[in-house]
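From the shared-data thread, chain only:
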Amino acid sequence: MSTTTHRGYRGPFGDMAEWMEAPWTVLRPVTANPMRAEDFVADGRYVVRAELPGVDPESDIEVTASGRNLTIRAERREEKDGKHRSEFRYGTFSRSFTLPDGADLGQIDATYDNGILEITIPLAEKDKAVRKVPVRLNQHIRPS
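Structure, as tokens:
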């Protein structure tokens, strides 16, 4: 028995790129991203997962975080032996993500297993306390 997976509505053309498989890949925009990824928040952590098969995580993947930006950069090298046809994408590619508020860059962690890079960043708890601010009378600040 098969099961159906429901994804959020992505507009009338949201899945068009996935429908266009070979031999129609020539019609995809040059800027189409070769790195497929997902991101979500779970258990107080921001998680990014990226498909990066065929790369060496120790030498071909670089993960950097600065401010509110997370960037994944990877390189897949082509090894040709004689005449052949390939639909793989080779070269250097990168992808950036905007980090949510409270991301603790000091505790970022990245793991790679079976072609999937997973990056986790703890999120600081938001202060949910309501603070009542007293209003004082006749104490305006005078401009100088």
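Residues 39-78+87-125 form a domain with the Immunoglobulin-like fold (CATH 2.60.40.790).
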